[in-house]
Design brief:
With 122 residues, the chain is mainly beta. Strands 2, 4, 5, 6, 9, 10 and 11 form a seven-stranded mixed beta sheet that branches.
């Protein structure tokens, strides 16, 4: 399975940005998909997770109410709509996938994509 994240960039405080993560390969491997981020000098942290059908999602408290995770299985693509961005959202964002929800949330994902940088300027 290969994951390709895109959509990062420079945005002002309060602005919005949408990240995409395109998956290819063994489709049964990316039943659960999620987003993580790593800010400069900090450890990677969980952001959001979504199940195959999109009926279940879960967010880190720091992004709840501002970020929305979604997916389009016909396009094998997952999205992260980010609104009301803050300087502390500045990070490299990674997408991840696997077969088990708990593994994704804990960061023990089977597959990882390369990151896309989001910079929020004040």
């Amino acid at each position: 399975v290969q994951l390709q994240a895109s959509g990062g960039g420079l945005v002002q405080v309060g602005g919005s940005l949408r990240l995409s993560c395109a998956a290819s390969g063994r489709t049964l491997s990316y039943i659960v998909m999620g987003w993580f981020r790593q800010a400069p000098g900090k450890e990677r942290e969980f952001v959001a997770v979504i199940n195959w059908s999109g009926s279940s999602t879960f967010y880190a408290d720091s992004v709840k109410g501002r970020f929305t995770i979604s997916r389009d299985n016909a396009k094998n693509t997952m999205y992260l709509q980010m609104t009301s961005l803050k300087p502390e959202d500045t990070a490299v964002y990674y997408c991840a996938t696997g077969r088990k929800w708990d593994n994704i949330v804990s960061g023990s994902s089977d597959y990882w994509g390369q990151g896309t940088l989001v910079t929020v300027s004040s």
